[in-house]
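A note from the maintainers: we've had questions about how concatenated examples are separated. There is no special marker in the raw files; a new sequence line simply starts the next protein. For clarity in this README we add a label.
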Amino acid sequence: MKPKVVLTSWVHPEVIDRLAKDCDVVPNATEDRLAREEILLRAKDADAIMTFMTDSVDEAFLAACPRLRVVGCALKGYDNYDLEACTRRGIWITNVPDLLTIPTAELTIGLLIGLTRKVLQGDRLVRSGSFDGWRPVLYGAGLTGKTMGIIGMGAVGQAIAARLQGYEMKLFYADPRPLPADMEARFGLRRVTVDQLLAESDYVVPMVPYGDDTLHLIDASAIAAMKHGAFLVNACRGSVVDEEAVADALAAGKLAGYAADVFELEEWARPDRPKRVSGRLLADTER
């Protein structure tokens, strides 16, 4: 008998076909998230389960799935998984460390350019029908000659630094572990403290994993330490940034702009996570 594998989210058909060669696959044929109760119903006699960022695998989950031997995490982070509980039960848990390294780096730079060059505002102006030719508006800010600060120089941070070559920027990074000297030289990176990075950077990009020590790493006090008129881009984890503090800083003009691909509401394992993106943050469409 083939092992039973439950997929909690939609995946490409070729993935299902590949699994089906060796397993009895129970897919999620919709684009909607499955409720925890539905997942447990499907996985109660499963040998393996493929999970995603919206899922949480804890002691109670494992107790309800006594045959489970493998938990596959189709993501990089694993803070929403009880590793100790899996270990005690002899359950293998896997992740994909380099799943989104390059896409995240590319998106971060795209967000940075779109934010500083006011791409969305220009698009809205043209689509509104009121654009009648050039006027001295929506100039935005450039990257050349400015200072970029990256907090966290892991795989994604390094990929960002590599792709910023050619922009003639000064590149700071803050990380407990220094890069090899030859890599710093190749990318033009200078290791500084977080305090110096915040104080001197025109653009700040946190790129750290989520955990107790990085929850609201960029909070009101961190923003207060930043240069007046700096830009902030978050493409790592939503709860690394305090969205209400960002909304305050945008309203006060402390931050010139904020761009994000991740939001606090997506921190599925955080008990007190917001259930929606801050309305105050969304209301500031110009920055």
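[label: protein 2]
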Amino acid sequence: YTFDYVPERIIIQELGKTIILSKQDFCCSDLAVVIPDNRCDYLDYDRVAVPVTVRNYQPGDRFYPLGLGGSKKLKDFFIDNKIPPRKRHTIPIILFQDKIAWVGGLRIDERFRITPATRNALKIRLVSSA
């Protein structure tokens, strides 16, 4: 799926999941409230750019996992996080201008992280489409 705008909902029928995206005002005092959780992640909205692409893993994918301090192949990230090969293609990935920003509830990319300078946040939630 590719969008020329940031949609509010992306329904992935093949997985029975929905990604919910919402823009929120944000200030640095909110940093203490941003608690990592598998159901929702936050990105710096002002670093987001169209087109927005949602797809699954592809061989050769590379991103900058938050906290790692460098880039890593997505395959190696999956191995390190003990994601079995059969499940890797069921994890949705969000890209902004062909840069991986979010790996389905597992990690965000360092380049899109919330910082003290962040004024707007993009909240991403992955839920079942039931």
